Every structure is written in structure tokens, then in C-alpha cells.
């Protein structure tokens, strides 16, 4: 079994990983050539993912924002998390957002618009997209009638 020299960065990364796990011991000098190649490939993939994340974070998100967003709350969703997500959509350029909560009693639709207070509809049969979506109205009765 051949042994390949491990760079200081790779050795440090392996030792940090082992330290976080707490149940591993790293002796990079005894790692086979094939294993070291695999480790090098993994680190290249991780570096590529980090590079992608940096590029994604640098994007002007308002250029790519959704214009209209609908979130439909399910039993596994946290209302607090969904509200935060809706605020994020608005902060990133969405012009209209509906958070539909069929689990609430009464059933609620939160209407989000930029720089505006959230409007709340209770037990509404429909919700209108005016003025952002002229002529669009969503019939809510099928959503309300669906068992949760």
C-alpha cells in the first residue's frame, strides 16, 4: 500500500474533523493512497460548494426575486418560520405574498406587500391579487374544505 504525502491543510482539516467528532483519531501518514485521493476529492467538492455559496450570497437578490409568492401552511410548518420567510420574500423584492393558514381558527390569509402592514383576512372565500395581479382571484373554499 503506497502512502501519499498529505498537505498541511488536509492534515489540519482531518484533525479538525476528528476533533469535532470526538471519536476519531487521525494518522494521515497511514492513510492509503486511494483513501487520500478520495479525501482530496471530497475537499475539492466542499471547496466548490463553498465557492458556490459565496457567489450565491453575492448576487443582487432583488434582481432575482419572485414577484408573487404563496405559502400554504401545513401541520409540520411553524407559523413563526413562515412569517419570517414571507418577510424575507418582501425584503428581497417580491411585490405580493399570501400566507394561507388553514390550520388557524378562524382560517387566515396574511397578505404581504412591500413597505406595508400585513393585512389579515379571516374565513375569506377568496383572495384577490389586485392591484399587483390584475384579474387574479384565488378561490379559497377548496383549500378550507380539504382535511388538514
UniProtKB/TrEMBL annotation:
One of its GO terms (biological process) is DNA repair. InterPro entries: Nuclease_put_TT1808, Restrct_endonuc-II-like, Uma2. Residues 68-140 form the Putative restriction endonuclease domain. It comes from the Eukaryota. This is Putative restriction endonuclease domain-containing protein.
